[in-house]
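User: My notes are a mess, but here's the protein and zinc ion's SMILES. Can you give me a structure?
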Amino acid sequence: MLAIFVSIVSCKEEPKEEPNSEEIALEEVVERYEFGFNLDDFIVVRDTIKRGDTFGKILERNKIGYPQIYNIVEKAKDTFDIRRLQVGKPYTLLCSKDSLQQPQCFIYQPNKEDYVVINFQDSIHAYTNKKPIKYVEKVLTGTITSSISQTLDSLGVSQVLANKMADDIYAWTIDFNRLYPGDRFKVIYTDKYIDDSIYAGVHNVKAAYFEHKNEPFYAFEFETDSEKGIIDYFDDEAKNLRRAFLKAPVQFSRVSSRYNLRRRIAYYGNKVRPHRGTDFAANIGTPILATANGTVTKSSYTRGNGKYVKIKHNATYSTQYLHMKNRNVKVGQFVKQGDVIGWVGMTGNTGGPHVCYRFWKNGKQVDPFKQKLPEAEPISDSLKMEYLEFIKPIRAQLDNIKFLEDELEIKIDSLKTLDKQILVEDDLITEK
Ligand SMILES: [Zn+2]
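Assistant: No problem, the inputs look usable. Here's the predicted complex:
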């Protein structure tokens, strides 16, 4: 999509062979507008702020004397404090086209979108403004050929989008560590462009459809509170896609050992060594996320657990995270779902880098994958009808999109490694 867009833009700028006709020559005159000025009226000097540069030095270098610089700074200071110029940021000087080539305007860009104009053409005045922004709605489809974890690196522009799907939209309903070959998706999203051509990232995802193990998962973006600007994703039956708990405490990991009360380990003469946790293998240093809001009740070390953290979510549920390289929270601290509470390591009794995730329900350790977990915040009854009306045309649009299998190919090998079990000994020492 992007490639097509870019090529259209560059075609426009290609110089054409012109017949010698005045009429056509007139059409060829393209006025270059930027920052609200016709750049053809000026000599345009573009540069970036260098170390040691000050507003005064820049103007002085460009033939403006000191009493005048002082005046400009005084008049502009309510709009822009010239001491806030940052090294590396671009600025533009618009200079007169006469023989003096005196600067008439200083334009500073603190970011891609905003710019500050200090105009001293006649009287001195300063203002801030935004560059025009264009939103382009796009459609992407893809099929998972093996699974997902390492692929996301190679997706370029689409990685942002893939992360948005994995982290913001489906983190609670689809386990992205366990995708299946043949799983496929469609997504309607908006890209943002500044000044028509500068790509500024994915603006939002309007709707998505994910087919996981032949089950459809619809997701529609919907604003539930326009005053607070609260946006959530709901499915085709108005159920919130967010759950009280994340599916996994680490992103793009793989489950190396499941909760299994009858696990037998050959190394120990095939004796039953129950595994009351779920092991997520990931590289050392991978952030470990709180799977739900809660209060830290333990941030400690034992010989078996290594460095670990336990979080109490409510009267019913607590979660625990073992073998951390380092902890990032203190006892009594309130954490939000998705907060980084530590990093994957191999402290304590473990055969490889992973986080052993323990899910406590009413004081007992249970299998989190077997729990029916509550949805985060259901849509209110008063909004439900409005929502169902709102999604009708968007759903039709989604359903009409054909799968283009080659557009996004995801090749990862984590499915193949799923059967490989790392020998993990963390359960051999009783937890306290
Ligand atoms: Zn474990």
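Residues 84 and 110 are 9 Å apart (CA to CA).
User: Great, I'll file this with my notes.
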